[in-house]
Amino acid sequence: MADKRLWDLLAKQYDGQITEEELRELQLLLQQRQDTMPYGELLSELRTLALRPSAEDMAAGNNSLSAILQQVRGTTGPAEEEHSAGRPGRSRMFAGAVVLVVAVAAGVIFKKTGKASGTGAEPYDRIVTKTGSKTLINLPDSSTVVLNSACQFAYNKDFGVRKREMRLTGEAYFDIHSNPDMPLVVHAGNVIIRVLGTAFNVRAYAEDSFVEATLVSGVIEVSLRSDPERKILLRPNEKIVIRNQEMVAAPVTDSGKAKSHDEVIRVTQVAGDPKDSSYIETAWLKDKLVFRKESFASLARRMERWYQVHIVFTDTSQQNLLFTGSFEKETVGEALEALRHSAPFGYDISGKTITITRSK
Amino acid sequence: MRGIGAENLRTLESGMTTDAAYILFERLSLGEDEEALAGLHHLYFYRLYKLACSIVGEKEAAEEIVNDVFLRIWQRRPLLKAVVNPELYLLKCARNRSFEFLRSQRSAVHVGADELHDFPVQWEVSPEQLLISSEMVRYINKAIDQLAPKCKLIFLLVKESNLKYKEVAELLNISVKTVEAQMSIALKKIGLAVPLTFLQH
Fold first, then answer.
1. In terms of domains, do B46 and B105 share one?
2. Which of A149, A154, B104, B186 matches a 20 to 30 Å C-alpha distance to B96?
3. What is the pTM of this model?
């Protein structure tokens, strides 16, 4: 009887509809038999399995797609020429990758460059996103990358053929197709992330003083460009924050001596919010700006990208205020009002510039 | 703690595919975007095909049905923007077309979720997985394969399409309690199929 209860509760948990009371009961039941049966863990890992189509299924899939496209082309009629001339997507398609634009704002500028971006003479395809837009990129190896606003992103032209390399300035969520023979490498600021196949979030804006990576599933290996031999392995639910050394060295260290690696790199556990079951780090994917005990200085930079505004502080003491909360549909004015309820400060909005002052 | 973490992962992943489907629907609503149609096909063909297979029990018919779903989507492009949950919408289209097909085959026969046909599904694991070995996947696949068709379909819908139990219940016209009970059975069979030695690593 207790056994059935255990599986019923695990089934409820799997759906995410378990009440707090039931969750406590489940944890108790699991604890009682923890040494023998780590079922909770097994079931969590079940989610990482992927459906494998059989050869027969794949043949059916290919048949189906060509039959559909044939019919679609047959029924489109004479108007097709006109349409395809100005059709979005077609002309933007490059190197087999499909780029999908979320039309939040006017969106995305695509650049095809044959030039190297950085080291070597490798040709890269580059994508630049504007503030206020979100962009989904489907890569030829069926990996996907979602770019947050104001990003510069590039990947090698023969992506997935010989190697998989990406460069990122900005923030992106990666869902990488597993390929043990061809690890994927992401260069973000001074940080190098090696990936086998996994889902993770990277935040590396040039104006921020750090690069951070949050691992959702799988394994990634993080190293510094300045010290490629030192590798840090990240496990799921871990976040690594790497301070940008050049930027930290100047104002922060009064003593003038260089910081050691351990002060520069910090690995922490991230826990999802049990209420709405989401990570703060990936809330932007759902069009939410979420912050937990974040300094006003850091929050202001994110609000600048979020609302496409410029935020100036007249007084440094305001920059150190800590805020916890989230914005979704609020206007920038409503957001500032909400923040003002939890800490005293004043502000002036003049066009796209917001000035934060001492409280009036 | 681990369980809660994985819960987030699931919501996130489901958000991801839903996002992709939503964007593709939006693109289709804007024009004759074959690329978007192919993208949707890539994301959803196998799931719709398995659902159709389990309802009609014939592979050729199931393939036709899924083709039909995508053609209808194409014909109704301008309306797609209004679809709130593209993933569920596609699954519902496949379900409706499947039942229509059955009705056209044998007149006035009521078909319910208890008359589902068996269909093969296989899952695989990426090699860097922390806990599940390929040996374990074999046990898991075997356990899933032995589930009753209804139980198997429910597990597939929950696992692969990240549907909530409520949505699965709606799709198959059964109660949420039934979905919960079937998932409990599925999880138990899978859990017990994996020898303990594999779990104590």
1. yes
2. B186
3. 0.49
Q: Is the Cβ pair B123, A52 closer than 8 Å?
A: yes
Q: Both B138 and B107 in a single domain?
A: no
Complex confidence, ipTM: 0.81
Give the CATH number, domain containing residue B66.
1.10.1740.10
Three-state secondary structure call for residue B132 = coil
Q: What is the pLDDT of residues A129-177, one digit of tens each?
A: 777 777 888 887 878 888 888 888 888 888 878 888 999 988 888 888 8
Which residues from B are below 8 Å from A89, CB to CB?
Answer: 27, 33, 35-36
Examine the domain organization and report whether B103 and B153 are in the same domain.
no
A24 touches chain B (CB under 8 A): no
Hey, are the CB atoms on A100 and B123 less than 8 Å from each other? no
pLDDT classification of B29: cutoffs 50, 70, 90: confident
Sign of CA dihedral B10, B11, B12, B13: positive
CATH code, A88-269:
2.60.120.1440
User: Over the stretch B38-88, which tens digit does the pLDDT of each residue have?
Assistant: 888 988 999 999 999 999 988 999 999 999 999 999 988 888 888 888 888
Q: Side-chain half-sphere of B117: how many Cα atoms within 13 Å?
A: 16
Which residue segment(s) compose the domain that B188 sits in?
134-199
Q: Tell me which chain B residue has its CA closest to the CA of residue A74.
A: B71
Determine contact, residues A138/A149, Cβ cutoff 8 Å.
Answer: no
Q: Which residues of A touch B156 (CB under 8 A)?
A: 51
Same domain, B98 and B138: no
The structural domain count of chain B equals 2
For the beta carbon of residue A221, count every other beta carbon within 10 angstroms: 15
Q: In sequence order, what DSSP letters do the residues of B68-123 get, joined into one string?
A: HHHHHHHHTGGGGGG-S-HHHHHHHHHHHHHHHHHHHHSTT----GGGPPP----E
Closest CA to A197 of A184, A210, A216, A213: A184
Separation in Å, CA of A300 to nearest CA in chain B: 26
Rounded-to-integer distance, Cα B193 and Cα B183, Å: 15
State the architecture of A288-357 in CATH terms. Answer: 3-Layer(bab) Sandwich (3.55)
